[in-house]
């Protein structure tokens, strides 16, 4: 009996001495993170600066403000960027536009007086990119229909492209998707548009092929667990060219972000950047300054998909013959059924505020590119 008590006491001592393990690393506690791309399009380019957080803390991008940014080309021309807040710095689309065949470097000054540090990227040449040949979708069957069950459909979006000159061998894609939502009630804001940008890495190389041809490249799969395909949907895909060096950067980043337990959730510090600190060459910089030509393709999807969820199908939760307590705080009116004396006007209500105003998810402003 005594030996059993000693064993229990020993286990309690062990469990009470557990502490968080943080491995020792030689990295700086805060590192500059650079995310940016300039293209050959007549558009505003954005460079984002942030700081990584110390190891052992939740990694969230902390904007790096007050810096001075310039883009320098191989002819000595310099273009200054404007800070717009939250660590974002933009080019002026009326005076700056990248040109294919030219090389560009990014210059950063932390603008901190005595402790000012300057960073500079290696010159990056803007390579040409072919157009997107086609962007299309195919229905996919998630569950077959049977008896009174209509089945469940998904949607796979594909892309085809090729370079007849066989010069573009390294590709990267991202996209922006927009879809319309419609509420089923006579409310002020019942029709809205939601826009989201991709947050995954999508790259491919044709370096090992005889020709630079890409067919049926999967861009995005849309399941029935979203209402994107409930009404109308559009996707714009951007196609970029890049060097073998930049492709290697994105490939390493893709491999590491698929794993767990990385030291930094923003950009792993083990991946080399193309930027260096002039005053402290040994200091690590995270991220990459990208330079690329750009081609785009947009499609609209207006089709019937079976089994798509409707987040507004069960909005009505109760009905009252009077104004209920908590009105416009915990309960909202969806439908008013007026009636003249001697009958009573009654209300159908909801406890989900999203059912009363579509601007809680999107905007009522129709995008300029939207087609009816």
Average pLDDT works out at 87
Largest sheet: 6 strands, mixed
Count of individual domains = 3
Specify the structural class: mainly beta
Beginning-to-end CA distance, first to last residue: 82 Å
Query: Helical stretch count?
Result: 2
H-E order: HEEEEEEEEEEEEEEEEEHEEEEEE
Label the overall shape: globular
What level of helicity do the residues show? Answer: under 10%
Strand content: 35-45%
Gyration radius (Cα, Å) is 27 Å
Report the strand count: 23
Low-confidence stretches: 6-28, 260-265
How would you concisely characterize the structure shown here?
This protein has 372 residues and is mainly beta. Helix content is 8%, strand content 39%. Strands 1, 2, 3, 6, 7 and 19 form a 6-stranded mixed β-sheet that branches. Strands 4, 5, 8, 9, 10 and 18 form a 6-stranded antiparallel β-sheet that branches.
Topology:
Elements: H1 2-15, E1 32-38, E2 46-51, E3 62-63, E4 68-73, E5 78-80, E6 82-85, E7 88-90, E8 103-109, E9 118-121, E10 124-125, E11 132-143, E12 152-163, E13 170-182, E14 191-197, E15 202-205, E16 212-222, E17 232-241, H2 244-257, E18 275-277, E19 285-291, E20 294-301, E21 318-320, E22 332-337, E23 346-350
Parallel strand pairs: 1-19
Antiparallel strand pairs: 1-2, 2-3, 2-7, 4-5, 4-8, 6-7, 8-9, 8-10, 9-18, 11-12, 12-16, 13-14, 13-15, 13-17, 17-20, 21-23, 22-23
Protein model, in words:
With 372 residues, the chain is mainly beta. The protein has 3 domains: 147 residues, no CATH class; 110 residues; 34 residues, no CATH class. The protein has 2 helices and 23 strands. Strands 1, 2, 3, 6, 7 and 19 form a 6-stranded mixed β-sheet that branches. A hairpin with an 8-residue loop joins strand 13 and strand 14. The radius of gyration is 27 Å and the shape is globular. The chain starts with a helix and ends in a 22-residue tail after the last strand. About 8% of the residues have low confidence.
């Amino acid at each position: 009996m005594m030996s059993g008590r000693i064993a229990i006491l020993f286990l309690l001592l062990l469990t009470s001495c557990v502490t968080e393990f943080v491995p020792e690393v030689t990295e700086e506690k805060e590192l500059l993170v650079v995310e940016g791309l300039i293209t050959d399009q007549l558009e505003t380019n954005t460079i984002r600066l942030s700081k990584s957080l110390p190891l052992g803390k939740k990694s969230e991008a902390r904007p790096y403000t007050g810096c001075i940014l310039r883009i320098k080309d191989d002819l000595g021309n310099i273009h200054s960027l404007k800070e717009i807040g939250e660590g974002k710095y933009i080019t002026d689309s009326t005076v700056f536009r990248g040109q294919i065949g030219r090389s560009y470097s990014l210059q950063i000054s932390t603008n901190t007086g005595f402790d000012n540090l300057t960073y500079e990227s290696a010159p990056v040449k803007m390579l040409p990119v072919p157009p997107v040949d086609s962007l299309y979708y195919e229905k996919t069957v998630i569950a077959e229909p049977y008896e009174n069950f209509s089945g469940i459909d998904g949607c796979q979006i594909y892309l085809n492209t090729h370079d007849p000159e066989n010069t573009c061998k390294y590709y990267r894609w991202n996209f922006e998707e927009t879809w319309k939502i419609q509420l089923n009630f006579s409310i002020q804001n019942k029709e809205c548009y939601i826009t989201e940008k991709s947050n995954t890495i999508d790259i491919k190389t044709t370096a090992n092929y005889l020709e630079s041809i890409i067919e049926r490249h999967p861009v995005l799969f849309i399941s029935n667990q979203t209402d994107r395909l409930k009404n109308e949907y559009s996707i714009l895909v951007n196609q970029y060219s890049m060097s073998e060096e930049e492709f290697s950067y994105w490939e390493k980043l893709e491999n590491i972000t698929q794993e767990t337990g990385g030291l930094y959730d923003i950009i792993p510090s083990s991946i080399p950047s193309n930027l260096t600190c002039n005053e402290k060459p040994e200091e690590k910089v995270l991220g990459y300054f990208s330079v690329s030509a750009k081609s785009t393709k947009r499609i609209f999807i207006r089709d019937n998909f079976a089994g798509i969820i409707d987040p507004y199908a069960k909005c009505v939760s109760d009905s009252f013959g009077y104004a209920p307590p908590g009105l416009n705080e915990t309960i909202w009116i969806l439908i008013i059924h007026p009636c003249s004396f001697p009958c009573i006007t009654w209300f159908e209500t909801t406890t989900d505020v999203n059912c009363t105003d579509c601007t809680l998810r999107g905007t009522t402003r129709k995008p300029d590119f939207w087609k009816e």
